[in-house]
Amino acid sequence: MALLVQKYGGTSVGCPERIERVADKVARFRADGHDVVVVVSAMSGETNRLLDLARSIEPHPQPRELDMLVSTGEQVTTALLSMALHKRQVPARSYNGSQVRILTDTAHTKARIQHIDGHKLRADIDQGRVVVVAGFQGVDPDGNITTLGRGGSDTTAVALAAALSADECQIYTDVDGVYTTDPRIESSARRLEKITFEEMLELASMGSKVLQLRAVEFAGKYAVPLRVLSSFEEGPGTLITMDEDADMEAPTIAGIAFNRDEAKLTVLGVPDTPGVAYEILGPVGEANIEVDVILQNTGEDGHTDFTFTVSRSDLNDARAILEHSVAQLGAKELRVDSKIAKVSVVGVGMRSHANVAARMFKALSEVGVNIQMISTSEIKISVIIEENYLELAVRSLHTAFGLEGDAGVQQ
Ligand code: ADP
Ligand code: ASP
Ligand code: MG
User: Is residue 364 part of a domain?
Assistant: First the structure.
């Protein structure tokens, strides 16, 4: 008998019939003798619908009010799932984030969880109840409702699993595990039996939305056993594991991630003098805009070009700041390009295999994909390319690194 925290995503609770299927599944786990805490997302499409509704009133709503609005989606599914469990004679109770007291900081729309009081939930569990908690939301010290960023129900589940010392945190979704790349882009993508936290962290931060980045960070920090599984079919899913042990599939590359949410800014003809990078990026950082890939060309005639990427939602703010800097620095011109994408290959095997970069660049050159920028870390290589070539790039890299086919055969 184990204590399981199970999270069901938007598609898994997308309509009343699917909520009933989730209730059947939870009831089966209970019948097998397990204690179950369930975290649910809003019905698929609901969070977007609520955001559109807000914007139809005011293009830039106050973040506090946005959180008040979008948190309602999860409240609906928790209550419906509890009702479906009652119908099956399973005692259950639904709670929203503030009732559990999922305490967060005050950063509306991207709040971080600071503390969870597990006592109340423990009491319910001890009395034989299934607890159903609204994902994606919490409450700040002043009692304001906060939300945890898109995909945040994953983080709610992992944080609850940590607070309750659960035996496993199970993320049920519309794919049956973590794949070598998004199976919607590459149909020959392969499910991984296991993946290390380090790799999962890198995949999530490079754009694979199968798990929210913060959920993986949290699970790593508190050593929460984490598994991604399908809501719709039985199977072992993918285990996210701490150890890089010998029986682990140890290919050079574990997977390929991509991100369409980037935009590129280039300042042309900047004087090539000390301090220029700071003068360009300093004001961007002060405006709380996160900079991702950076490239500075070799100077010529005392001038150079400076390029960096930001998230697309920050492009307009970054552009306004840079227009000011261009004038101040006496640079020639500012160019922006939002039709770019980032493709990353990720794998701990990179540490012991040379030539990964060369293999990557060869594969891209063979299909005529031009690399605009490159960035590397110990277990990742990312390239910025034209957005139109994204799918072609992902597929050719998937083949070049032998990711399809039988598990564990690639070097
Ligand atoms: P949920 O609503 O259950 O949280 P998400 O849409 O957030 O589901 O995440 C699941 C989706 O993640 C899949 O449908 C898939 O398209 C996408 N995805 C991206 N990269 C991967 C990957 N490497 N492995 C599996 N799924 C991935
Ligand atoms: N409903 C929220 C979203 O769509 C949170 C989640 O599903 O994890 O982002
Ligand atoms: Mg998700």
Answer: no
Judge whether 215 lies within some domain: no
Count the domains in the chain.
1
pLDDT in tens, 319-339: 999 999 999 999 999 999 999
The residue among 185, 183, 182, 169 whose CA lies nearest residue 133 is: 169
Task: Tell me if 42 CB under 6 Å of ligand 2.
Answer: yes
Helix (H) or strand (E) holding 291: strand 291-296
Instruction: Tell me the residue range of the domain where 127 lies.
Output: 3-174
Asked whether residue 10 is domain-assigned, the answer is yes
Question: Of 49, 69, 102, 153, which is best to mutate to test ligand 2, by the most ligand atoms within 8 angstroms of its C-beta?
Answer: 153
- Residue 156 Cβ < 6 Å to ligand 1: no
The CATH number of whichever domain residue 102 belongs to comes to 3.40.1160.10
Q: 341 in the Ramachandran plot: left (φ > 0), alpha (ψ -120 to 50) or beta?
A: beta
Q: What is the pTM of this model?
A: 0.93
Per-residue pLDDT, averaged over 44-71, amounts to 97
Amino acid letter, residue 65: E
- Find out whether the beta carbon of 258 lies less than 6 Å from any atom of ligand 1: no
DSSP codes of every residue in 110-153: S--EEEE--HHHHHHHHTTPEEEEETTEEE-TTS-EEE--TTTH
Residue 47 falls within a domain, yes or no? Answer: yes
How many CB atoms within 10 Å of residue 160? 26
pLDDT for 245: 60
The residue among 362, 360, 364, 408 whose CA lies nearest residue 381 is 360
Q: Report the residue among 174, 187, 259 best suited for mutation to probe ligand 1: largest number of ligand atoms under 8 A from its CB.
A: 174
Question: Which residues lie across from 238 on neighbouring strands?
Answer: 228
Whether ligand 1 lies within 6 angstroms of the CB of 181 is answered as yes
Query: 319: number of CA atoms within 13 Å, CB side?
Result: 13
- What pLDDT, on a 0 to 100 scale, did the predictor assign at position 38? 98
